[in-house]
Amino acid sequence: MIIESNQRPENAVSRTTVEAGDHYIGIVWAGQTLRLLDLEGNQAADTLFFNAHDTAERYSAMDTLREQGEVYLSAGSKLRSNEGRVLLTITADTCGRHDTLGGACASESNTVRYDLEKRHMHSCRDNWMQAIADHPEYGLTKRDITHNINFFMNVPVTEEGGLTFEDGISAPGKYVEMVAEMDVVVLISNCPQLNNPCNGYDPTPIELLIWD
Ligand SMILES: [Zn+2]
User: Fold this and answer.
1) How far is the CA of 15 from the centre of ligand 1 (A)?
2) I want to staple 88 with a disulfide (CB 3.0 to 4.6 A). Which of 52, 178, 201, 212 is the partner?
């Protein structure tokens, strides 16, 4: 569902560019608004959320989809935790829908899906592992790296229940915005994938904006 935001970029309390293929970890406090902006279009932002005070509580795709009764995420979606509580609510979306079924790329999946020689290519899982290794203050370990949201990524579900990675439906300047319902840790891999069309075979930067 397309809903535009009234937030103005010049009023944001923080603006961070996450370069193509790079990662981000930080906290969004309860009541703050987080926007992910697809600067050049067709990007995939592989994202995990955690309760900042107890990271054993984290984003759960199955709880989120079951409770909303739809397979895509968009404006109105409540992003639920493995304890069924709402971490964030999507309040604006100019892309239209976002995936939470396709999972993230990893050296293992690159090897299985594409070729043995792809094993050493940069992946989302490696990005997350690098972020949590660089920031031990969040207390996250390999076990916390679970199923995720792929903001902007296009994984259509067919009538027959088929699932494919397709060319993106996002475009330059499209964004998704959400309000934190509790203090959350945000962990993002700005997908570096070069073997499927999730980011148009061309990783590009995204911007994160936060408002109080
Ligand atoms: Zn990826």
Assistant:
1) 23
2) 178
| Contacts for 138 with CB less than 8 Å, ≥ 6 apart | 25, 50, 55, 132, 185
The count of other CB atoms within 10 Å of the CB of residue 55 is 18
Q: Cα(46) to centroid of ligand 1, in Å? A: 6
- The residue extents of the domains of the chain are 12-211
Per-residue pLDDT of the chain (212 residues; tens, 9 = 90+): 899 999 999 999 999 999 999 999 999 999 999 999 999 998 999 999 999 999 999 999 999 999 999 999 999 999 999 999 999 999 999 999 999 999 999 888 888 777 778 777 789 999 999 999 999 999 999 999 999 999 999 999 999 999 888 888 899 999 999 999 999 999 999 998 877 777 777 889 999 999 99
